[in-house]
Every structure is written in structure tokens, then in C-alpha cells.
Amino acid sequence: MKAVKTLGQFIIEKQADFPYAKGELSRLLRDIGIAAKIVNREVNKAGLADILGDAGTMNIQGEGQKKLDVYANEQFISALKCGGECCMVASEENDDCINIESDISKDAKYVVAIDPLDGSSNIDVNVGIGTIFSIYRRISTEGKADLKDVLQRGTEQVAAGYVIYGSSTMLVYTTGKGVNGFTLDPSIGEFCLSHPDLRIPDDGVIYSINEGYYSHFPDGVKKYIKYCQVEDTKTQRPYTSRYIGSMVADLHRNMIKGGIFIYPLTAAAPNGKLRLVYECNPMAFIIEQAGGKASNGYNRILELEVTELHQRTAIFIGSKNMVNKAEEMMACFSPQLIKKNFEGEVCLQ
Ligand code: AHM
Ligand code: MG
């Protein structure tokens, strides 16, 4: 019988790769794993416990918060506070960064950016949802950690990961040395290594995009969608369209099977919908570490300048050759032209 390796054992084993590491990052990852298990327990009870539906509040982006959004946010923040390895948290659900001012956290080296529950619109209908997290080393040297600690380029991430609450619950993470996936075994309450050294195929046959917005996409995106739909046996086209509407679930599937996920600029969201700091950068880090590619259509996501906590971006992410092809088609239409076209459009919102 194959020996089981838990997330905790794996993290300790990997710490040996960094001889001068003091175990802080390992403990931080462990804290995130614990919070993920607590959130998973509630997600699994959704429908039984009074946890479905709207919380009756809005986040800074004007999006209605679900009860589970709020619950997950509280759980992750509380785990990070109690763990003592994180001095500041930035969350999709909070307008500003949260300084952790406990005695055990005062010398903490790390800041965490998090989307506690991504894919909120799927919460009430038993469809896969996720948590996305990104870890940076604090760069400010005096006083409390501040905004600049979290406004670092994606290339500066120390670790990133996601949890997918799906048909089974998985935690997938990278510290810049490949990607590993752990499945939660509910019988022992532990994440166990199930997907060592995850690699995304260079090519795929799945494209994932909300085609309902087709008429409001930039021309380069329309051109790429048409390319996906054209018959060509050599490149296995037409491709298959798969879109769940939960970035974590869509990307997890595409990472395993090969595919591209696109959330472009649209007339309704001229700066993109997805957030750079706690959605796109961590996912880009993971996908690149798995051998894939992530771009805003023109430039590498991880190199984009970060100026705002809740900054949005377009994203084209997944199998390397598919993203290259999409970029090739975007190159025919400059970002300036896209903006100009949007200005002439009727806004959806
Ligand atoms: P959320 O963070 O409010 O849940 O929104 C992010 C989600 C992504 O998971 C998903 O890819 C996208 O929004 C779906 O948006 P749309 O419904 O516009 O296709
Ligand atoms: Mg989100």
C-alpha cells in the first residue's frame, strides 16, 4: 500500500531545500491549510446550516457579499492572526489592508493577499468554488507593514496557492519550485499529497470564457474564439468550450487537462473584472510554475505594475501554446484601439 504524505509532512520535508529557513513560511502555509479545512467544513454543510445566501453587505467593489464570503474571510484572517507569521492581510472582502497587531505577529516577515471565497455566484448552487492566496515578504522596514508591502509585482511572490472546494477538496500551492496538489481526506482530516509535481500540458483543447459577453469583447478576443471554433484536425479543432464561472475550478480543470482561461476587458468591465493582487498574480505564479503562461493579452501578468489593492486586469492563462496563439491575435489590435471601441459601446452595467 502507498504511504500517505500529509501537507504538514510535505512542508517540513521541503523546508530542508532552504537550509537557512526558520520554518516561518512553513508555519504560514500550515495556518492557511487549517483555515481551509474549517471553511471546507462549512461549505460542505451549505444547505443544512443557515450559511447560504446574501450577507446583506457589499464589498468595496460594490459586489454583494454572501454569508460564506464573510465567514471564509473571518476564518482566514483569524488563522493568520493566531499563527503569528503574517503581519498584514489584504483581502477581496476588505477595503483596506488589515494590520495584525498581536504580540506574536509583531516581527512577522510575511504579508498575505487573499480571495477567501472565489466564485461567489456559485455558492448557492453546489458548484465548485475556491480560495486563492498569495504570500509576499514584507519590504517596509519600520513601524507597521503598509500598502507598499502588498503592492509588489507578482514576480516577488514567495508562495501562492488555491483551495478548490469541489467534488473533493484540494489545496494546490507553489513556493517557486514546481506545483504540488493535496486532496483532503475527510476520514483523517488531512490534506494528503495526491498530485505531485503538477504540469499543465503545452497544448490543450479546452477554451474557457464567458461567451455571453461576446459582442462586447475586443476584436482580438473575438478572433481567437473564432479560431477555437474552426474545424482543423491537425490542431484538434474545434476546441471544447467549458466555463464554470469559478476561476479556481476553471483553471484547475485546465491545468490538469490542458486549456486556456480568458477573462478579457469588456465594455462592462473596461479594466477587466478579475483582480491582479489576490486573483491573477497567484494563479499566474502557479500556472507558470506548472509550465504554463499567463498574460493580459500583451504582457506577462507577473510583471505588471501594481498600483492599487483592488486593481483589475484582463487575463489569458493556461497552456503555453494556446496563450501564445491568443496573444498573436491580440497583437493585431492595440490596447488603445480597444479602449476607443469601448467608448463607442453601450455599457452593459
Ligand atoms: P468573485 O471573486 O466575486 O467570486 O468573482 C470572480 C469570479 C471568478 O471566479 C470567475 O472567473 C468570474 O468571476 C466569473 O465572472 P462572470 O460571471 O462575469 O463570467
Ligand atoms: Mg474572486
The distinct bound ligands, ions and cofactors come out as: 2,5-anhydro-1,6-di-O-phosphono-D-mannitol, magnesium ion
Which of globular, elongated, flat, extended, rod-shaped describes the shape?
Answer: globular
Element pattern in H and E: HHEEHEEEEEEEEEHEHEEHEEEHH
Instruction: State the separation between the terminal residues, measured CA to CA.
Output: 56 Å
The gyration radius over C-alpha positions equals: 20 Å
What's the helix count?
8
Tell me the total number of β-strands: 17
Largest sheet: 8 strands, mixed
CATH class of the largest domain: Alpha Beta
| CATH topology description of the largest domain | Fructose-1,6-Bisphosphatase, Chain A, domain 1
User: Low-confidence spans: pLDDT under 50, at least 5 residues?
Assistant: none
Tally the structural domains.
2
Helix content: 25-40%
User: Strand pairing plus helix content: what structural class?
Assistant: alpha+beta
The spatial strand order of the largest sheet comes to 4-3-5-6-7-8-9-10
CATH H-level name of the largest domain... which superfamily? Fructose-1,6-Bisphosphatase, subunit A, domain 1
Strand fraction band?
15-25%
The mean pLDDT is 91
CATH architectural grouping of the largest domain: 2-Layer Sandwich
Task: Explain this structure.
With 349 residues, this protein is of the alpha+beta class. The chain has two domains: 7-195, Fructose-1,6-Bisphosphatase, subunit A, domain 1 (Fructose-1,6-Bisphosphatase, Chain A, domain 1); 206-348, D-Maltodextrin-Binding Protein, domain 2, CATH 3.40.190.80. Helix content is 30%, strand content 23%. The chain has eight helices and 17 strands. It has helices spanning 7-15, 24-45, 67-83, 219-229, 247-257, 276-289, 320-330, 335-343, and strands spanning 54-58, 64-66, 86-91, 98-99, 110-118, 129-137, 159-165, 169-174, 179-185, 190-195, 206-208, 240-241, 259-263, 274-275, 293-295, 312-313, 315-318. A hairpin with a 5-residue loop joins strand 1 and strand 2 (64-66). The protein is globular, with a radius of gyration of 20 Å. The structure holds 2,5-anhydro-1,6-di-O-phosphono-D-mannitol and magnesium ion. Residues 63, 92, 115, 118-121, 210, 245-247, 263, 273 line the site of 2,5-anhydro-1,6-di-O-phosphono-D-mannitol.
